[in-house]
Amino acid sequence: MPAEIQKRYTAVITEYSRRFGKLLDGWWFDGGFAGMDHKLWLRAARTGNPRRAVTFNDGSFCLGSSKVVDDLETVVRDFKAVGGGVTFNVGIFQEGGLGPDTVSQLAELATRLR
């Protein structure tokens, strides 16, 4: 996302946050993009209420990372250790298939968890 678009988008979030003040308890940002300025988004989201809960889809921190499987392996092992389940939100092409990078990473994760 170009810097100018990010700047404009966070300006809208800042305005909503300012107008709703203490009436707005939190923001959930789903997704992300390379070059995302998380601090900019956090400042915008907490305008008008510095205690506001703000969360980002954890995938937004992993974009462009070659170590995604290392981040995921720990999470899956921790959840499984206490009987929990884990789901993944992976992109699916219009034709119904998964991207080769996604398949590769999921296969590597499955191998590591055996």
Fold and architecture overview:
It contains 5 helices and 2 strands; from the N terminus they run H-E-H-E-H-H-H. With 114 residues, the protein is mainly alpha-helical. The protein folds into 2 domains: 3-60, no CATH class; 68-113, no CATH class. Strands 1-2 form a two-stranded parallel ribbon. Helix 2 (38-45) links the parallel strand 1 and strand 2. Helix 1 (3-20) runs parallel beside helix 2 and helix 4 (68-81) crosses helix 5.
Distance between the termini: 38 Å
Q: Give the rounded overall mean pLDDT.
A: 85
The H-and-E topology, N to C, reads as: HEHEHHH
Total domain units: 2
Radius of gyration: 17 Å
Strand-residue fraction? 5-15%
Q: Biggest β-sheet, characterized? A: 2 strands, parallel
Q: How many runs of DSSP E, i.e. beta strands?
A: 2
Strands ordered across the widest β-sheet: 1-2
Q: Give the number of helices.
A: 5
Uncertain runs with pLDDT below 50, 5 residues or more? none
Defining traits:
single chain; 114 residues; mainly alpha; 2 domains; extended
